[in-house]
Amino acid sequence: MARYGALFSGSQGNSTFVGTATQGLLIDVGVSAKRIEEALRRREITPDRISGVLITHEHCDHIQGLRVLTKRYHWPVYASEGTLTALMNSGAITPGCDVVPLYDREPIEIGDMQVTPFHTPHDARESMGFCIETPDERKIGIATDMGVMWDEVERQLSLCDLVHIESNHDVNMLKCGPYPYPLQQRILSDRGHLSNEVCAEVVARLAMNGVARFTLAHLSANNNTPGIARRANVSALGQAGLVFDRDYLLEIAAPVSESPLTIF
After folding, report:
1. Gap between the Cα atoms of 16 and 202, Å rounded
2. Would you say 206 and 157 are in contact if contact means Cβ atoms under 8 Å apart?
3. CA 240 to CA 212: how far, in whole Å?
4. pLDDT at res. 1
């Protein structure tokens, strides 16, 4: 059975675990190595169970613990060529670290799982999302840090059983909030972050296509709240005629999760 957990989520750091009873992958390690280790320990995941680290892109809130963790445990790092170049240039990975380039929509076997990477629109060198398939054919989609939803990204997510998707900001909160205008425009751009409204539209379409589990992730601490994000998505799902706990399950990823892994 598949195991999934959003360990950390938001502008202060992101990390997600996807795996099985015996192996697993970390998607991003955007907090300190110590905090990643503690999160894994609480869930009884030993370092030898980690088959590798997938990196979506090189921004700090996705790679903070990478250098220490890879040096300590020798976990291989998987990312696009552009992201790997950025990581090496910045010193985020040490010389000799095992790195494996990923290519758009080219599946790769990592441990006992198959990972299909796909490009995403963000202001990074070459950001990616991932569809991860476990041996029992469960599929988990990871798609955050996107300014818009590309058709191909949505197609990949529509094949999944669980989708971990960005619901970053409420547009009105962002426009009326404390962020300077240039930063607001960056977030609202096609290479910024998904709003609650856009996320909700996508989630409703995915649910209509058979996706049953959703985690809303990467919520802004300043321009969103869990309640606002939930209401936007539940409203869109309701307008599509879908009922919570009958047609779909929806959770909000906490900045720091204390929850056990979801097993399904």
Report:
1. 21
2. yes
3. 14
4. 94
**Separation CA 175–CA 74 (nearest Å):** 44
Phi, psi of 184 (to 5 degrees): -60, -45
Backbone angles phi, psi at 209, to 5 degrees: -90, 5
> Tens digits of per-residue pLDDT, 12-29?
999 999 999 999 999 999
Which are the contacts of 2, defined by CB distance < 8 A and separation ≥ 6?
Answer: 18, 19, 20, 134, 136, 138, 140, 161, 162, 263, 264
**Kind of pairing between the strands at 213-217 and 249-252:** parallel
HSE toward the beta carbon, residue 158, CA cutoff 13 A: 13
244: which DSSP letter? B
Let me know: does 146 contact 163? Beta carbons within 8 Å.
Answer: no
256 contacts: CB under 8 Å, gap ≥ 6: 8
- Which of the four pLDDT bands, split at 50, 70 and 90, describes residue 143? very high
d(CA 21, CA 1): 7
Angstrom distance (rounded) from CA 156 to CA 215: 16
Residue 159's pLDDT is what?
97
* 39 φψ region: left (φ > 0), alpha (ψ -120 to 50), beta (else): alpha
Residues in Cβ contact with 105 at an 8 Å cutoff, skipping those fewer than 6 apart: 116, 117, 118, 152, 156
Fill in the amino acid letter for 258: E
Q: What does the DSSP assignment read for 153-195?
A: HHHHHHT-SEEEEE--B-HHHHHHSSS-HHHHHHHHSTTS--B
Q: How confident is the model at residue 113 (pLDDT cuts 50, 70, 90)?
A: very high
Q: Look at residue 215 and tell me whether its pLDDT is greater than 90.
A: yes
In degrees and rounded to multiples of 5, residue 242 shows phi and psi of -100, 145
